[in-house]
Amino acid sequence: MVDEFHPTLVIMDIKMPKLDGIEAARAITAKGPVPIILITGMSSDEMAAKAIEAGVFAYLVKPVTKKQLEPAIKLALARYEQFKGLKTEVSDLKDAMETRKLVERAKGILMKRCNVSEEDAFKLLQEHSQKENKKMREIAENIISATKIL
To answer: Residue 44 and residue 47: Cα distance in Å, rounded?
Structure first.
């Protein structure tokens, strides 16, 4: 159903006919993050640990009242937004690290080939980036590629 409807929130029981809720949560989160609230008739530390491992955002013990469900929904949605923000931040940081590595490598190539200082090599990269209206990463990749050919 998640594949068909793409919900913004999943609330399900741990006991289900074909698959238990923890395994279903694991299968759902393997395809992409979705805030999931699991409801169970009995609670244990082991079950809670499995739910956390499966990517569940909230866990409620029956009987569940509206008074309990509303804050759990708000919490799950808020945690999901934080998770998405962190995931984006991690992706941006990885990209920045990779760009930095490429720029450092390109600087080293320029320093060696042009017999210039590190500062001058960086300035050459910057100037070329501005002149061609391309990102430093792209210029660095081009320099590295050209060096491989030579």
So the answer is: 5
